Structures are given as C-alpha cells and as structure tokens.
Amino acid sequence: MVETMLESKSEGKSETASTAEQKKVKLDISHLTVSYGNDAAISDVNFKIFENEIFGIIGPANAGKTSFLKALNLMNTFDANMKVEGKILFNDRDIHQLKNVYALRSRIGVVFPLPVGLPMTIYENVALSPRLRGIKDKATLDEIVQRCLQRSALWDEVKDRLDSLGSLLSGGQQQRLTIARALSQEPELLILDEFSIAVDPVTTMRIEEVLKELKNEMTIILVTNLVQQARRLADRTAFFLEGKCIETGDTEALFNGQVENSKTTDYIEGRFG
Amino acid sequence: MSVEAMPVENLFTESQLNVKNKKIQSLYRVLFLLMTLLLILPVLIILGTLIVKGGSMISIDFLFTDPVNGMTEGGVFPALLGTVFLVSLALLISVPLGIAAAIYLSEYASENWFTRAINLAIINLAGVPSIVHALFGVGAFVMFFGFGTSILAASLTLAIMTLPVVIVSTRESLQAVPHAFREACWNMGATRWQTIRRVVLPNAVSGILTGVILEVSRTTGETAPIMFTGAVFFLPFLPQGVFDQTMALSLHLFVVTTQVPNVPEQLPYAVALVLIGMVLLMNSISIAFRMYLRSKKKW
User: Fold this and answer.
1) What pLDDT digit, counting tens, does each position of B156-174 carry?
2) Tell me: the pLDDT tens digits for A155-164?
3) For residue A224, with 0-12 CB atoms within 10 Å meaning exposed, 13-18 middle and 19 or more buried, which class applies?
4) Is the CA virtual torsion A35, A36, A42, A48 positive or negative?
5) Which fold has domain A50-79+98-268?
6) C or N: which end of chain B has fewer Cβ atoms within 10 Å?
7) What is the β-pairing status of strands A82-90 and A93-94?
8) Pairwise CB contact (< 8 Å): B189 & A102
9) Contact at 8 Å (CB) between A29 and A46?
10) Topology classification of domain B60-295
11) Which of A233, A268, A232, A269 is nearest to A59 (CA)?
12) How far is the C-alpha of A198 from the C-alpha of B57, rounded, in Å?
C-alpha cells in the first residue's frame, strides 16, 4: 500500500523529485531502544534506510552503533541480558513478529570489526552459508565460492590454496574472507561494522571500491570510525552520540555544514570524539 | 628534559643490582628444576622396581593364559580381558551422556539458579570417594535394578564415577572455542545446533578425546567401585555376557598381593606392571593424539 502510494506520488512529480521519495524503504526504524539490564545502549532511534544506498553511521566509541546493528540482526535472542524495544520494519514487515529469525539473519550479511576466519578451509568458509541453505551441488558451490571471493578482492591471492585454513590468513585477507562469506549469503542487507580497523589502507581502498559496486545489488549499512570513509562512501549518514541518533541527512550536506545540531559538525571536523 | 640521559657505557657494564638479580633468577630456576625432578622420581622408582622385580615374568604367554594352581602360576588373561570389558562398557555409557550434558551446559543453558545447581552437583559428584560410588552401585544397580553382581552393574558404577570428569573436560574444550566463531555463524542464520555441529564440535573434538582417553587410564586402575558390584577374585571361565561376573586386573593385583598364600614374589609385580603398562599405553596414545591434533591447530 505504502509503496504504491509512494510510486504514484513520484510518478506525478517532475524529474527533480528528491531521490529519497522515489526509493523503496528497506529498513524503517522507529522508537528503537536497546538496553542491557538497566543501561540503555541506544534510546529512541528513528530513521529510514532506503534500498540500494550506502547508509553511514558515524559517532564516537560507546555511542550505541554496534548495539543498533545487533538489534537489526535479532542477536538479542542469544543474549538474555539484551532487551530491544520499538519497531524495526524490514521490507515493511516488523521483524519482531517474524517466525523464522534464521531466515532473516541469512538475508543480512554482517562483517565484524575484527576479522573472523572460521577454523575451516577458505573454500568451506565461503561455502558454509550456501550449505546451511541446503545447497549441496559441488559445481554450484564452486561457482558461489569463486564469485564471492572475486567480489571481495581476495580471489587472486587464494585461488591456488582454497583448501588451506581460512583462520591462518593475514588479518586483511581474513577480513576480505569475512566479506566473501557475508556475500555468500546473497544478502539483501550488508552490514559492515568498522570493517577497516584491522585492514591496511590499500586493502581498505579496494574494499571500498567493491562496496560502491555492491550497492547496486543490496543495501549497505556502514558503521565507521573514520568520518572520511563515510564521506567517501555513504549516500546518507546518521550521527550517533551517547546512545542517541543526533541526526541523519545527506552525507554531502552534513559534511558541508548543513546540520541541525552543531555537535555533528564538531564531530565531523574532529573537535571531539 | 628532566630525566638524565644514562651514559651509553652503562649498557656494557653490570651494576650491583644486575648481578644480584641474575643470581636470584638462576637460584629460582634451579629450585624449580629440582622440584620438577622430584616429581619424576616416584614414577621412575615405581616403574624401575616393577620392571626389575616382575619384568622377567612378562611374556605373551603371561598376557594370554589363565591363572592356575590357586592363582600362584599362569597368566592374567581373564583379568586383562575383564578390565577391558569393564572400562569399555563404562565409557560407552558415560561418554555419550557426558558429552550431551556438556554440550547442553556450554551451548544451550542460560546462567540461572538451575544451571548453577547442576554445576554444583557435578563438582560434588566428582568429589565423591570411589568407595561411596561402590556402595551406591551395590544399592542401585546390584540390588534395586536387580542386575546382580555383574559386568553391567560394575560398568554402570564406573560410568557414574567418570561422568563428572567427562562433562567437565568436554565443557572446557567447548568453551575453548572462541565465542566469535559462534557469533559469526549465528549471524549467517545458522541455528544453535548447526553452529555446534559445524564449527564448535569439530574444533573441540581433540580436547574432548584427550579427556576421554585420560579417563580410560584412570578407570582402568579403579578397584573399589568394581569389587562389590561385579569383579570377583577368581573365575574358572570367561564372562559370556554383561550379566556375568568377571575378573579384573586391579582386583587381581589386590588378591595376589594380599589374599593368596604362596604366591611367587615376582607375580604381583608382573601384574602391576601389566596394569601400569595398560595405563601408560593409553596415556601415550592420548599424548600422541594431542600432538597430532595440535600440529593441525586451526587458529
């Protein structure tokens, strides 16, 4: 319903209509509060993330960025201490009413700050998710593994030793392996949580190039400590501070000082944080 | 610069303090080395004595013939076989149970009073003296369940006794698998069981097996739990099933040492040597296995 309304609305508009209205809403977050025991990690967060955009989240440590990501993935089912309130609509459906959390998680690829090469071969690392989905055919798996490793810019370095251990690759390679693994889920939503802190600058640049291409196929949430990385990549950016989402806006606008809250500019320009 | 720069020559000369520290350091090194050697001493003395006094009796025949002449001559075959039966059956019972319980405690259970109570029970079970296990075995398996004094009753008693150790060692091995691996797997949409099956267990299996093998060697030597529940002094025939009684090496050693008159002096030493040989064999397998798995360490 909402979709069709949006579409008919945008049809009537001129070519210069704001892109936000034309885009389909991938995630609609309203009044989201995440708490551990009595401590709220984030409180009352509201914003929308559109399909095929890179949505940046910036903010100093302890701002609640990672807690936000955990809530998206329903990781609270594994942590009795973590409580999530508010609404998260994924493709217009409330994820808290889901019957199958595993299917949701498999559609959301997550890359952690520190690379996690699972203690199995490189091939198995990437083939794990397809196998969990029930794909057994060797040729199909081969094809997925090669495609995902190529896209994460790791293929050339490992193609001759796919059966060596993924957990013994270098840090930067493991992070690209982690990205390949996330891509093997064929996710609709790719979440990167400070992916570059364990990666050298050259590799970071290569991954950034990959992300720019990937956004044509999926929605990407990029949590980053590097404000310049958000500027390079993100279409829109949210600024988190002390458990609150201070504001969201077009990345360029935010960086050009068109902000509602002066703290955003202070943070972007490195005056604190 | 408030700190005075140290002259370069100081690096090439030793001060009083350096000399003193070095002396103390070598003193401790020697002290700890002596203590370590002290630990090896009993092992060497025991093994040495057994080999010197009983080694001459050990032969293939000794291992594979029955004791004869009121157990003063012949071999230890029925006792050896009985021990193998008892230990294998006990582990067949306790290992699957223990691993299942450990997986539950490590991977599924949430931290609450119930889990804490179970953990407390396990620790206490591990601390129960083996003679008390024996009496429990008599009450529960021999009498209540009506298995009589049999291999089954004795093995069940041994199983109960080894269970806490299997649980604890398995749980430790599972906990040693980094949590990040689990989270990575969960994030991919894997269920808890898929995660355990594909990531946690394959990486904990070396630790679990090492624990089990060490348990084998401990169980082999147990005497008290089996002497009231299924092991007997002497049987003229080999056990035909789990409801038969059996001889066992550990009890046989006790018997030939203290209960039988006119035993040649070497015999008890030879029996002890066979028993300890079995244990050492199991331990060596365990060590070799651990070394093999460590060479394939995955993270």
Assistant:
1) 999 999 999 999 999 999 9
2) 999 989 998 8
3) buried
4) negative
5) Rossmann fold (3.40.50)
6) N
7) antiparallel
8) yes
9) yes
10) MetI-like fold (1.10.3720)
11) A268
12) 65
Give CA torsion, residues B20, B21, B23, B28, to 10 deg.
140
3-state secondary structure of A223: strand
Q: What pLDDT score does A237 carry?
A: 92
Tokens 């808290």, located at residue: A96
Q: What is the mean pLDDT of chain A?
A: 85
How many Å is the maximal CA-CA distance in chain A? 57
**Interface touch A106/B185, C-beta < 8 Å:** no
Where exactly are the structural domains of chain B? 60-295
Cβ neighbors of A90 (< 8 A, separation 6 or more) are A26, A27, A72, A104, A189
Burial tier of A114 (Cβ tally within 10 Å: 0-12, 13-18, 19+): middle
- Asked if residue A229 lies in contact with residue A47, where contact means CB atoms within 8 angstroms, the answer is no
A273: confidence class by pLDDT, cuts 50, 70, 90: low
Supply the pLDDT for residue B30: 96
Residue B125, classed as helix, strand or coil, is helix
Contact B298 A120 (CB under 8 A): yes
Measured at the alpha carbon of residue A220, what is the angle toward residues A216 and A224, in degrees to the nearest 5? 135
CB A72 within 8 A of CB A108: yes
Give the gap in angstroms from C-alpha A131 to the nearest C-alpha of chain B. 10
H helices of B55-198, where?
60-64, 77-103, 113-127, 130-137, 151-175, 179-187, 192-195
Q: Is A135 on the interface with B (CB under 8 A)?
A: no
Distance separating alpha carbons of residues A98 and B156, to the nearest angstrom: 46
Closest partner CB to B298 (pick from A116, A165, A182): A165
- What average pLDDT score do residues B234-245 get? 83
Residue ranges per domain, chain A? Answer: 50-79+98-268
Name which residue leads in pLDDT, A236 or A22.
Answer: A236
Task: Choose the closest CB to B189 out of A80, A106, A168.
Answer: A106
Say yes or no for a CB contact (<8 Å) between A105 and B186: yes
CB contact under 8 A, A129 and B189: yes
Strand partners, A240: A245
Q: Report whether A58 contacts A230 (CB < 8 A).
A: yes
State residue A28 phi and psi, 5-degree precision: -125, 110
Computed over every residue of chain B, the mean pLDDT equals: 88
The structure tokens listed for A93 are: 């459906």
CB neighbour list of residue B268: distance below 8 Å, 6 or more residues apart: B54, B253, B256, B257
A188 contacts on B by Cβ (under 8 Å): none
Indicate which of B187, B198, B206 best probes the interface with A, i.e. most A CBs within 10 Å of its own CB. Answer: B187
**% of chain B beyond a pLDDT of 90:** 39
Write down the pTM of the prediction. 0.79
Q: Following CA atoms B167, B168, B174, B175 in sequence, which dihedral angle do they give, to the nearest 10 degrees?
A: 150
- Report pLDDT digits (tens) over B62-73: 888 888 877 777
